[in-house]
Amino acid sequence: MSAFRGATNHIRRCGQPGPRERLLAGSGFDSFEIRALEVMRLIFAGMSKTRPRYAPDVAQVAHTLFGCHRGGILLAGLTAFVQTMAISRSETFRYANPFCAGCAAVMTENELHLLRILHHSRRGSTGRAMTYALLLCDARPVAALLDAAADLASLAPLTAEATLPPGV
After folding, report:
1. Which long-range contacts (CB under 8 A, 24 or more apart) does 45-53 make?
2. Which band of pLDDT confidence, cut at 50, 70 and 90, is reported for residue 10?
């Protein structure tokens, strides 16, 4: 069985958050983090072998979203981050279907924790990043995941546009 599983529609209606889910719009994450999630979802789909034939190539999407010069290195960082997270967890990672606009508008609880790790790592809040890493990995060792997040954060531009609620 794959370590990744797309969120199923029996839990929620397409485009409507279910329990412990959130709409991506208005989530407080900055544009880099939202684009990173878009690429990570394609990586998840590739790893779980649920990528349809018509799906765009993840490398092309990364180059489109991050630019020709940064796309490749950011894709490598995102892939390392995702793979490290996958081996740090004991449970299946649930992600929203990247091939459906309605589903992709919703963030699963797992995706939310993963983005919060990246968000706080980019801002030097290692304690908060560790909190979300422990939640995501069910209190298993998270040092490698935090290192992968820090490596990715060093490649990512930092902007002032993110507005997560205080304490999150």
Report:
1. 45/4, 45/6, 45/95, 45/98, 45/99, 47/2, 47/3, 47/4, 47/82, 47/86, 48/2, 48/3, 48/4, 48/5, 48/6, 49/2, 50/6, 52/99
2. very low
